[in-house]
Amino acid sequence: MGNRLSKIYTRTGDDGTTGLGDGDRTPKDSTRVEAYGTVDEANSAIGLVLAADTVPDRIRVCLTEVQHDLFELGGELCIPGYSAVTQEFIDRLENDLDAFNAELPRLKEFILPGGSPAAAACHLARTIVRRAERRVITLSKVDDIRPEAIKYLNRLSDLLFVAARTLALAENGKETLWNRDRG
What we know:
Helix content is about 60%, strand content about 5%. The strands form 2 sheets. A two-stranded antiparallel sheet has the order 1-2. A two-stranded antiparallel sheet has the order 3-4.
């Protein structure tokens, strides 16, 4: 593969543009750059979750795989016409989500983000994934975006919600239920 990042700065973006994966230049604030940039931000937020020493191995394995998926998704969004995310990615998320959720107490009320440091970081990652999903939907209104990309992000935010609940319990945290009448 060679040395792909031998030089970190190129000065080519000093004019407010960036290079897409197909070699085209586009404004740094374009809808496409905003979409894959938010996917990158979500990946970094998941890295913050994984930086906690208290993350159980099964969640660590799952979220590490997700980070690889998000890198693939970012590539798909950065290279118009490129396909990387498949239904198998979505199926894996659903299987992990179902397995984690089966071990949790039934949720009868909304919960407030928090519960423990890793759980709170996971809730933050979830909200960033939701924003990434919105950005990809916006992009899909002006460019062809495969439905798998949107489905993946939608399912990932669900997985991160369940993972946050799992982390809160694993760290002996307490989920705070939303209470409208907290008086």
